Amino acid sequence: MYAIAIALLLLLSACSSAQPTGPDAARALIEESAVSMGGWAAMDAVKVQQIITAGGDLEPMQAVKPGGDPRVINRFSQGIIYDFENKRMRLTFDAIREYPSTQPVKFNEVIDGDAGMLETPDAKENIQREPLHPSRLATRLRDMRRTPIRLLYTAKTAPELTRVEDRKDGNTTIHIIRYKDGNLPVEVHFDSFNKLPMRVIYTEDDPIWGDTLNELAFFEWRDYNGVRLPQVFAVFLNGNKIREERARNIINNPRYDAAGLVVPDEIKAKPADGERIVSQWPLRRVVMGVGYQDFGREQKVDVVEVAKGVYHIKGSSHHSLAVEMKDYIVVVEAPLFEERSLAVMKAIEAKVPGKPIKYLVMTHFHIDHSGGIRAYAAKGATIVAADEAVPFVKTVTSRPKTIRPDTLAKAGNTSPQVQSAKDVRSLTDGERTLELREIPNPHAVGMLAAYLPQEKILFVSDLFTPGTAVDPSNTGGIENAAALYKAVVDQNLQVEKIVGGHGETAPLRDLVKVASMKKGS
Ligand SMILES: [Zn+2]
Fold first, then answer.
1. CA of 367 to the centre of ligand 1 (A)
2. What is the distance in A from the centroid of ligand 1 to the CA of 464?
3. Distance CA 302, CA 315 (A)
4. Count of CB atoms within 10 A of residue 120's CB?
């Protein structure tokens, strides 16, 4: 009996020494990792670091269908200079966008302590300077704290630092530490073989998916003047790759122009406008060269009555349609994020007081067209989506959102009503009819347009942007317009006005013009 107890104790202590856990174990692991990276002294000596990479951005939330292959957004070159001592950085981004159309995306960001500046070339290549969007700034500062040479410093001084049980990843045993960065939980995985960090995973907020794992993974380590650093970086959101880049050069303590890392006083003096939300969302929009400016900010809302009781509810980049029925309202399109939906709902309540929003129609699932659906679900609206997008809507409306709780999360255990457009082909109050029409097109499977036959109005997103000229080189845009026009003809829709999820309201002939730019049709 005594012998068995001793044997058990030995076994237990052997196990616990193989897998130490807790704060001290975390600190010990960080020390081991620091040795692997070249030692604290070698890392301390790197006051400034320049990382020049080339890579590409991907967007799973712009796929043709939910869960489909991500769209390739761009090919980029990027240079970053970090001045760690003064908490300064300069990022230079130079990309050729591939989607939704070919065009350059160029900008510089400068961070100087707690202040940020964006530099963008205008049409004449003159640099325009403005304060960096607060969320973009907060997210870049986070990225600075998790860049390989800073990661162990961030970890060792972080609150709630602890080591948890090892995990197996194929044949590799992974050592794991956890800590908090602000209000965000962080996990760092180390390769048990060489003690180098493999990946750092933040739980952050995403407007659509709620609590989201943002993973920066490191590959192909090599020695740079006594410090080991990875040459390949990849970013995953909830396991889906959104970026891969390879170092073309990493220079420790380079010669550089320090003036390029200074934010001028006149930019610093401008009041901070918006919330500092750490989220990949604005950066994913930025690398596409598309709208993100209202994220974490007050929403711009313009209500334009396009027919009696039919309202175009416009924002700076994304719009909705509200249709007044006898006893309720139908809203088409819940773009961007919760704050957008709340502002749209408020505008509707002001125009048409006392009528509940009974239906919210989602045109398609893309990143900028589905972020507002949860707010309508919280209000008790039935979410109507194309059949292919129904599982997506069900998943999104049941995701946890604890980092930045929205109205649906705060409402607790609601079970949102979700219906397939197959079962809700038309809505009528006896006088007015709203039809949901599926438009076959190359942009997104199950694209819904809202058709008001009496008013001869068609509300459509992304396939055509009323009031915006289309360049003949924008073949994707022309193909989308052609697909929309074909659907109008094939489905015998009587359309006078097209109201845009982007853009304005335009006569049908504007669509015909763009559609006929397609060669051979
Ligand atoms: Zn789209």
1. 8
2. 11
3. 7
4. 15
Domain identity same for 221 and 345 = no
* Ligand 1 center–CA 65 separation, angstroms: 10
Q: Do 253 and 330 belong to one domain? A: no
Which residue range forms the structural domain that includes residue 152?
A: 20-286
Task: Tell me the pLDDT band of 2, cut-offs 50, 70 and 90.
Answer: low
Q: How long is the chain?
A: 521
User: pTM of the entire structure?
Assistant: 0.94
Q: Measured between alpha carbons, how far is 184 from 203 in angstroms, rounded to an integer?
A: 6
- Give distance in angstroms: CA of 341 to centre of ligand 1: 18
Domain count, the chain: 2
Cα-to-centroid distance, 122 and ligand 1 (Å): 26
| Residues 418, 445 within the same domain | yes
Give yes or no for a contact between 505 and 312, defined as CB atoms under 8 angstroms apart.
yes
Average pLDDT, the chain: 95
Q: How far is the CA of 363 from the centre of ligand 1 (A)?
A: 9
Residue 108 alpha carbon to ligand 1 centre in Å: 27
Q: How far is the CA of 369 from the centre of ligand 1 (A)?
A: 7
pLDDT classification of 15: cutoffs 50, 70, 90: very low
pLDDT in tens, 381-424: 999 999 999 999 999 999 999 999 999 999 986 789 999 999 99
Judgement on whether residues 264 and 347 belong to the same structural domain of the protein: no
Q: What separation in Å is there between the alpha carbon of 62 and the centre of ligand 1?
A: 6
CA distances from 417 to 339, 377, 491 (A): 21, 7, 29
Inside any domain, residue 371: yes
Where is the domain boundary, 255, 286, 317? 286
Inter-residue contact 26 to 163 (CB < 8 Å): yes
- How many angstroms does the Cα of residue 461 sit away from the middle of ligand 1? 7
Q: What is the pLDDT of residue 16?
A: 45
CATH of the domain at 278: 2.50.20.10
